[in-house]
């Protein structure tokens, strides 16, 4: 987690805003207006930037170098809307969000799934879990080949798992667990803080095996160096095979707390976990590095509802709050979380992706701003 520097506290915060495609252009302005209305923040300046598949279709470039340069040289953090990456190969196109994560050193994708119990939910107590997804490796390095053989075409994809990246994401997972443990202690809760390693090393013994042992190595080294009384004292560690984890997550999600996973598993698990709270439109994330934070709602570009004022802005608003939290602005972030939870708990202003919802994007924005004030 970053901390506001003295320089940042004395000047306006500069936030790069990249709506990208589809409903990103509808929900990111809502997040901006909520940030502008949140008490306790320094003055904020919002820098509009371009990226996305639609931009690629117009210009042949999905992520202009200018966007990268401005983020690196002028911005303290950023918000990304959504991207319409095609499911088939398009010559010359690659996902701008994947490249942004690499260019900015955003090696961790942190996706909490939490919130009040909504009408129609299958569980009677709130879900509270967070997936820490390694953001730079696995199959997402996009090293693929297609070969013609006498038996037909053969496609291959290289999967990369390194000790360095796995250790780094393991350390991030335990630091997130420490922060959750501290919050629980402050609140007087006795809930166990736990990190679960998600893998498939019973089949992929080399790649997933290295991920598993690297993350375990972070925990074991801390205990060995400090006689069990180190930084991660009181934090439990377990592991779960990815297939059985999906089953357990939908049957008994409350057994999970902090989940750390390679890129592909983390992507699938965190999207699936959105069903536990009712909609992808509620789930936030941040892409985190050691020097930069970028908020990003988990949902896609939703072309079927684009421009209809139906998109759920909650994920974008929560992502903005999560960005603030990981920048060190904890109290303003809490105000946004509480405002959103109040609107959801009330249950009268919900978009159509939620049970019984008939409200518009604008309705939800107005309700959040009222709760915030």
From TrEMBL:
Residue ranges that the Swiss-Prot or TrEMBL entry lists as coiled coil: none
GO biological process: isocitrate metabolic process; lysine biosynthetic process; tricarboxylic acid cycle
SUPFAM superfamilies hit by this protein: Isocitrate/Isopropylmalate dehydrogenase-like
Residue ranges occupied by any Isopropylmalate dehydrogenase-like domain in the UniProt entry: 14-368
GO cellular component: mitochondrion
The keyword Transmembrane is assigned to this record: no
GO-annotated molecular function: homoisocitrate dehydrogenase activity; isocitrate dehydrogenase (NAD+) activity; magnesium ion binding; NAD binding
InterPro entries, alphabetized: IsoCit/isopropylmalate_DH_CS (IPR019818), IsoPropMal-DH-like_dom (IPR024084)
Protein's UniProt name: Homoisocitrate dehydrogenase
Record organism: Malassezia caprae
């Amino acid at each position: 987690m970053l901390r506001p520097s003295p320089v940042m506290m004395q000047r306006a915060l500069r936030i790069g805003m990249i709506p990208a495609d589809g409903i990103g252009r509808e929900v990111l302005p809502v997040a901006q207006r909520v940030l502008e209305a949140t008490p306790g923040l320094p003055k904020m300046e919002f820098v509009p930037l371009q990226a996305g598949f639609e931009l690629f279709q117009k210009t042949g470039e999905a992520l202009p170098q200018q966007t990268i340069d401005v983020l690196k040289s002028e911005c303290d953090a950023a918000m990304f809307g959504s991207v319409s990456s095609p499911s088939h190969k398009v010559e010359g196109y690659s996902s701008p969000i994947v490249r942004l994560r690499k260019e900015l050193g955003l090696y961790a994708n942190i996706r909490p799934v939490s919130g009040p119990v909504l009408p129609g939910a299958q569980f009677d107590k709130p879900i509270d879990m967070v997936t820490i997804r390694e953001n730079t490796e696995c199959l997402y390095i996009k090293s693929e080949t297609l070969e013609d053989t006498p038996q037909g075409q053969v496609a291959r994809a290289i999967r990369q798992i390194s000790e360095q990246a796995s250790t780094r994401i393991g350390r991030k997972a335990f630091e997130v667990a420490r922060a959750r443990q501290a919050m629980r202690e402050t609140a007087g809760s006795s809930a166990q803080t736990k990190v679960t390693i998600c893998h498939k090393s019973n089949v992929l013994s080399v790649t997933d095996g290295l991920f598993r042992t690297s993350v375990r190595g972070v925990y074991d080294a801390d205990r060995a160096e400090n006689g069990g009384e180190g930084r991660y004292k009181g934090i439990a560690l377990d592991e779960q095979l990815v297939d059985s984890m999906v089953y357990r997550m939908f049957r008994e999600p409350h057994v999970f707390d902090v989940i750390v996973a390679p890129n592909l598993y983390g992507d699938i698990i965190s999207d699936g976990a959105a069903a536990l709270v009712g909609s992808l439109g509620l789930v936030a994330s941040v892409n985190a590095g050691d020097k930069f934070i970028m908020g990003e709602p988990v949902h896609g570009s939703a072309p079927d509802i684009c421009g209809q004022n139906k998109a759920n802005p909650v994920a974008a608003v929560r992502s903005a709050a999560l960005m603030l939290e990981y920048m060190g602005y904890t109290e303003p972030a809490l105000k946004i979380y509480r405002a959103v939870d109040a609107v959801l708990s009330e249950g009268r202003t919900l978009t159509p992706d939620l049970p019984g919802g008939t409200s518009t994007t604008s309705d939800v924005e107005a309700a959040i701003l009222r709760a915030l004030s």
